[in-house]
Write a structure and sequence with these properties.
mainly alpha
Amino acid sequence: MISEITGATGLAIVDAIPAGERDPAVLAKLRDYRVQASEEVVRKSLEGNWKAEHLDHEQRSPLRLILDKTGHASSPLVKRAMKRSKSW
């Protein structure tokens, strides 16, 4: 399991979903090496039903919008995660 959604793995996955990626196996490959859960555990946790109303908001994730609006996107923790995330 991913316990910190604002970490490198969480942000990479959160950004990949509105960009069109839905395959749990592909999303699980975004797992940072520091995540203790195996890729298989992450993949299983990402299986589910995708609802259009939850996915598309100007191609940006709700978390990304909140981080931008609140200014948290500029916090040191998020900046470090963004540096490690290839998709941000």
